[in-house]
Specification:
The chain is an alpha+beta fold. The protein has helices spanning 48-55, 59-77, 81-87, 92-107, 125-223, 226-238, 256-268; strands spanning 15-25, 31-43, 111-118, 244-245, 275-276. A 3-stranded antiparallel β-sheet has the order 1-2-3, covered by helices on one side. Strands 4-5 form a two-stranded parallel ribbon.
């Protein structure tokens, strides 16, 4: 049986490797240094033997530590200090992870890169002060922009409030106007109905009066006979207490029957005085 003379523990769970003090030069020739880069990785169980066979127990030195140095230098050499330190710094984590995982998948498939965390690089103090001043100015500009946005937002809000208030007042005015118009229209219709009722009533009264007068006229027309007119004449003459005849009185022509009847009535009335001044027959 083979005798085990040496063994090495191999971690197959998630582990974090810290790569420290990584110097690099930017595209503009400025030397900077990354103090620490953390690489979270895991060696899959089924690939342990093949990985150790090809790259040894220190496989992570080849594919993590050395690989980080290489990729960081490649990245810095193709970007300016402004880009590395500010503009594209937030993209370094993903770019490192993609670059390392791409080569591991091709040459050491058992190594899984879970994430990469890159700290802010250290730059020369003089340049750092310039960046700090630029950041201060940028912050002031951003604050001014934000204040302007806030002012514009407040102005827009006030405008919306004013428009809303104006629309509300306009709606209230329109509703009140419609209400007044409806009231006036209702009053007009009521007056129209009352007028129509009054006209109908007056027309009915006029028609009734016309019909009554028409019937009275027809009745009077039927009454206008010689006998009736004679009777009315006698009644009118008999109602007078005094009758004067003479030159100063217009001549009167009487029917003989009327005179006889009239004289007969005078004889019965002792209180009636008659003066004959002139009689023309």
């Amino acid at each position: 049986m083979p005798v085990v003379t040496h063994f090495e523990p191999i971690q197959v769970t998630i582990q974090t490797d810290e790569v420290r003090n990584i110097p690099c030069g930017t595209k503009g020739g400025v030397m900077i240094s990354f103090e620490k880069i953390e690489v979270v990785n895991r060696l899959q169980k089924e690939y342990v033997y093949s990985t150790l066979l090809n790259y040894g127990v220190k496989y992570d030195k080849t594919w993590i530590y050395d690989k980080i140095h290489h990729e960081i230098n490649q990245f810095c050499s193709s970007h300016t200090l402004q880009q590395v330190y500010i503009e594209v710094f937030d993209q370094i984590d993903d770019k490192m992870k993609e670059a390392i995982q791409s080569d591991c998948t091709r040459y050491a498939p058992g190594i899984e890169i879970i994430s990469v965390r890159v700290t802010k690089p250290t730059i020369p103090n003089s340049i750092k002060r310039n960046f700090e001043q630029m950041e201060e100015e940028r912050t002031k500009v951003l604050i001014a922009i934000e204040k302007q946005k806030v002012a514009e937002k407040e102005a827009e809000t006030m405008k919306k409030i004013a428009l809303t208030e104006a629309e509300k007042n306009a709606q209230v005015s329109r509703i009140l106007m419609e209400q007044k118009l409806m009231e006036k229209d209702s009053i007009r219709r009521q007056e129209q109905i009352e007028n129509e009722m009054y006209l109908a009533r007056e027309k009915s009264l006029a028609d009734a009066h016309y019909y009554r007068m028409l019937r009275e006229a027809e009745a009077n027309k039927l009454k206008l006979t010689p006998e009736y007119l004679e009777l009315r004449f006698i009644e009118s003459i008999s109602n007078n207490s005094k009758i004067f005849f003479g030159d100063k009185v217009p001549n009167m022509v009487f029917d003989q029957r009327l005179i006889g009847s009239f004289l007969s009535d005078l004889k019965r009335d002792n209180n009636c005085e008659i003066s004959f001044l002139s009689l023309i027959c």
